[in-house]
TrEMBL record:
Record flagged with keyword Transmembrane: no
Similarity comment text for this entry: Belongs to the UPF0065 (bug) family.
Keywords attached to this entry: Signal
Signal peptide positions (record): 1-32
Protein name: Tripartite tricarboxylate transporter substrate binding protein
Domain of life: Bacteria
Length: 333
């Protein structure tokens, strides 16, 4: 055997050994990182301003997550462009587990269709870790409308096409999409009226200037109890813990189920060991009795899903909400 061949084979052997060693060192380093995680504060980016439902949920979660992981979790409100600014900033962050956010029905399901072009891929640019909570809306009508349940409301709407109006906080919002889904599934003709100031929309609803609306349960339910509005149903497949006597719309309109939701996400490419640690901690947060009570008081339902199920759910939700936006012709206000 020639010396040249021996040298070449030796070099290849050394190269292979070094590659294997580098791979082992890399895996060892990644494992050490995961075991040490978190060893510095975690930033939780919130796509909406302080005081919103999303912000309230985020602050509850950040507090409990910090206790579970033994590290501070800092909430960073980054509002703008319907949550797109926040989502893009997280998508462009290092996938080390120190920048987290909510993936929501707005930022990751509605916005891709509503805005036409967004600076991130809602699936590929994120590590979606677990679904956390969902918030049912309640369909309410002004008492002037002669209907006492969903069947009567649908019959009245069909007998009076185009007469009923429903308000929302803007095109593409969950109340708007809830109305569009109801139109699609029942064939009724109701007119959407978007408001820039949702408080004005509520005032008009109470005054009878607007016939009906889908609205967040904790906000609208007191007006139902006072008799100023009538509840037709909740926009989910199960009853709301806040208003258990109000039936789901799905009891009348089979398959009707639409709700805003929030899940935990980070940038694409996060180490699986860190993902697993965050999933476990999040499930612990969602199972905590005190946290469950506080979440119910906010008006959200605990809906935990593991990473695999959440990713499958995300894919179907993106298709559903995209179709609704396109069918409704919704545009950014």
């Amino acid at each position: 055997m020639s010396p040249i061949f021996k040298t070449g084979r030796l070099n290849r052997l050394i190269g292979t050994t070094l590659l294997g060693l580098c791979g082992a060192l890399t895996a060892s380093h990644a494992n050490a990182q995961a075991q040490a995680y978190p060893n510095k504060p975690i930033k939780f980016v919130v796509p909406y301003s302080a005081g919103t439902t999303t912000d309230v949920i985020a602050r509850l979660y950040a507090q409990k997550l910090g206790e579970i992981l033994g590290q501070s979790v800092v909430v960073d409100n980054k509002a703008g462009a319907g949550g797109n600014i926040s989502a893009e900033s997280v998508a462009r962050s290092a996938p080390d587990g120190y920048t987290l956010t909510f993936s929501t029905s707005a930022t990751h399901a509605t916005n891709p269709a509503l805005y036409g072009k967004i600076p991130f891929d809602p699936i590929k640019d994120f590590t979606h870790i677990t679904l956390m909570v969902a918030a049912p809306n309640m369909l309410v009508i002004n008492p002037k409308i002669p209907a006492n349940n969903m069947a009567e409301l649908i019959a009245y709407a069909k007998a009076n096409p185009g007469k009923l109006t429903y308000m929302s906080a803007g095109s593409g919002t969950s109340p708007h999409m809830a109305g569009e889904l109801l139109k699609t599934m029942t064939g009724i003709d109701i007119q959407h009226v978007p408001y820039k100031q949702v408080t004005q929309g509520l005032t008009d609803l109470l005054a009878g200037e607007i016939a009906m609306s889908f609205y967040h349960v904790p906000v609208i339910y007191p007006h139902v109890k006072s008799g100023r509005l009538k509840a037709m149903g909740v926009a989910t497949s199960e009853r709301s813990p806040i208003a258990p006597e109000v039936p789901p719309i799905g009891d009348t309109v089979k398959g009707y189920d639409i709700r805003p939701w929030w899940g935990l996400a980070g940038p694409a490419g996060m180490p699986q060991d860190i993902v697993d640690k965050l999933e476990k901690a999040t499930m612990q947060f969602l199972k905590d009795p005190d946290m469950q009570k506080r979440l119910v008081d906010i008006g959200v339902i605990v809906t935990p899903m593991n990473q695999k199920d959440f990713n499958a759910f995300m894919a179907t939700e993106l298709v559903k909400w995209t179709k609704l936006v396109k069918d409704s012709g919704a545009k950014v206000n």
